[in-house]
Amino acid sequence: xxxxxxxxxxxxxxxxxxxxxxxxxxxxxxxxxxxxxxxxxxxxxxxxxxxxxxxxxxxxxxxxxxxxxxxxxxxxxxxxxxxxxxxxxxxxxxxxxxxxxxxxxxxxxxxxxxxxxxxxxxxxxxxxxxxxxxxxxxxxxxxxxxxxxxxxxxxxxxxxxxxxxxxxxxxxxxxxxxxxxxxxxxxxxxxxxxxxxxxxxxxxxxxxxxxxxxxxxxxxxxxxxxxxxxxxxxxxxxxxxxxxxxxxxxxxxxxxxxxxxxxxxxxxxxxxxxxxxxxxxxxxx
Length: 285
Ligand SMILES: Nc1nc2c(ncn2[C@@H]2O[C@H](COP(=O)(O)OP(=O)(O)OP(=O)(O)O)[C@@H](O)[C@H]2O)c(=O)[nH]1
Ligand SMILES: [Mg+2]
Known about the structure:
Layout: H1 4-12, H2 18-25, E1 33-39, H3 45-58, E2 63-68, H4 78-85, E3 95-100, H5 111-122, E4 127-133, H6 137-143, E5 148-153, H7 159-171, E6 174-177, H8 186-195, E7 201-203, H9 212-223, H10 226-251, H11 260-267, H12 273-284
Parallel strand pairs: 1-4, 1-5, 2-3, 2-4, 5-6, 6-7
Helix pairs in contact: 1-5, 3-4
Bound molecules: guanosine-5'-triphosphate and magnesium ion.
């Protein structure tokens, strides 16, 4: 058996040698709790995750972290910063932190991300945290692979962020307003609470370590929602199958079967997408 790190590297490269190993470990997965942490760049996601790791470790839970930046073709840059924020846990055998380059030709998700989650799960990680920067649909989709989604925001993020918040607002099970130590966080907290009165909104400071235990117990409340977890696991499996299928079609040169000419015919209403799909299906059978 190769080490988990080696297997993750194979996955990142989409090396087919990873497949028999994934098949062998799959039956041993499905036990971990998946926590997605997303939010705009620099709001303090990694610093907050660092705090969460500490409290999970106090409860003797083993933790895996995957830092995913769908826009970087190789691990580096921002992701290096992510890992530095969690450096204090590097020597702890109960913590596994890995950044993952997931750029695939089908947007920001590549099937390697699913595989990587299974690897950490098979390693026995009880909590798997996936950090993504929530600036686009890809990131939002990645965060949604998790069973519980924590959206981190901080006050004064500006107009650009206001627009982007739309996507983030919809996916958060729990909202955290970070940097409460230095920034006026109450208006944002109120705004978020008004957007959905039933959803927990917590003021925290990852830097000062305040609000962390409240955040933890709120998250644990979500981990216990069996029906929710079950439906999110189904969503994960569906997404994984879908991406694998895409990848397979792509490898057969069938990735996207419609030419620019066909697309412009759709735009010009000379053809409709439904008939095109039917025709494509008939051709394959
Ligand atoms: N004052 C204050 N600063 C914070 C807090 N949390 C994080 N920071 C600082 O904010 C900066 C960004 O923190 P990160 O944890 O790297 O933020 P991030 O959201 O992971 O950033 P990206 O991964 O690049 O999107 C760092 O300089 C942190 O020290 C906080 O609660 N209060
Ligand atoms: Mg980060």
